[in-house]
Amino acid sequence: MGAPPGYRPSAWVHLLHQLPRADFQLRSVPSAFAPQEREYQQALLLVAALAGLGLGLSLIFIAVYLIRFCCCRPPEPPGAKSPPPGGGCVTWNCIAALLVGCAGIGIGFYGNSETSDGVSQLSSALLHANHTLTAIDHLVLEMVERLDEAVRTELTTLEEVLTQRMELVAAARGARRQAETVAQQLQGLAFWRGVPLSPLQVAEDVSFVEEYRWLAYVLLLLLELLVCLFTLLGLARQSKWLVIVMTVMSLLVLVLSWGSMGLEAATAVGLSDFCSSPDSYILNLTQEETGLGSDILNYYFLCNQAVSNPFQQRLTLSQRALANIHSQLQGLEREAVPQFPSAQKPVLSLEETLNVTEGSFHQLVALLHCRGLHKDYGAALRGLCEDTLEGLLFLLLFSLLSAGALATVLCSLPRAWALFPPRNPSASCSGSHQSEPFLQSRLEPGLHFCSFPGCRRRPH
Fold this sequence. Notes:
By secondary structure, this protein is mostly helical.
């Protein structure tokens, strides 16, 4: 099948299309795009379930790490004034993870924009195709009504005026038959009239879903950005309550990141299967939804020399009939008007109607050619299979960076929280000392506190 102009499956489409697929029984599933088949649906669900597996492993790792940190810490020796081993790297590890998360947020905004641009290109192509189909139906209806009106009025009047000359009446009746033939042939050119599938409705549905998808990702990105910023603020201000709140929020965003990763992975894999060979699926789906013949759909979706124009015969007959009407009207104007002056007005009116009809007919021929609709089809595929797929891959990278960064933050924040100094001087005898260069002590340098258990302040 011929590919639309300017569209070629990208390397990412080929790569994702080659990935193995399996159903819930781990049986191999063909990579051909078949969303109506149960096995293919299970294969995509299994791809999304891998993100759930990653979430479960992340939570188990974080839980084991925190349990080990809380329950297996060696006791601090009495009177120790040195910082805990490795404590100096805790805050910097957390900060580095947050910076990676911020970089992932930037990638996420770019991927969200690319995905939105691709969907917008798809919607624009559908709207342009709908405009073309609507223009075809409108032109056909307008031309048929104009010819019917000419048959009912001008040609009927002309036959009444020319009743004394039967050869002229026969010429007028011949023009009537030709006009009726043109109207009959034109009615078969409005091939989209009465079709239940509307590109306008599809474009509106796609735009509606994309609007909420885009908004949901913007909210997720802003939520993670706020978590990163407030976590950094909590570390800078050594605020335990803020760190605790951000730990809970980081856990929530971690779950959302893994969930979005599953949706993105399944969508990208399914989209790659569709984009690897879109023609056959689109042809079958359109034929099923519209009931149109395969010759019409092949002509517009493929638009190559191997497929002939299914309307060529009707167009040829209509053009010949219009030319015959024009010749008959010229003959009537030359022979009938000098003998019957009252015939001049209907003849001139018929010629004007014929000129307008011929202009509309040439415009209809241009619209019925496959170039316009095939160009819209190619634009829709490029938007869906290039920009949208690229945006999904960037969103997938964002989710991966976000999940890794947040897992590191969740492991680092409790250790950083344990290094924070107490908020009142009486609690400073607990043996905790600040050891972070990033977290400078707020205590006055002139005050000295004992660091051994059970210490008492010397009376003044």
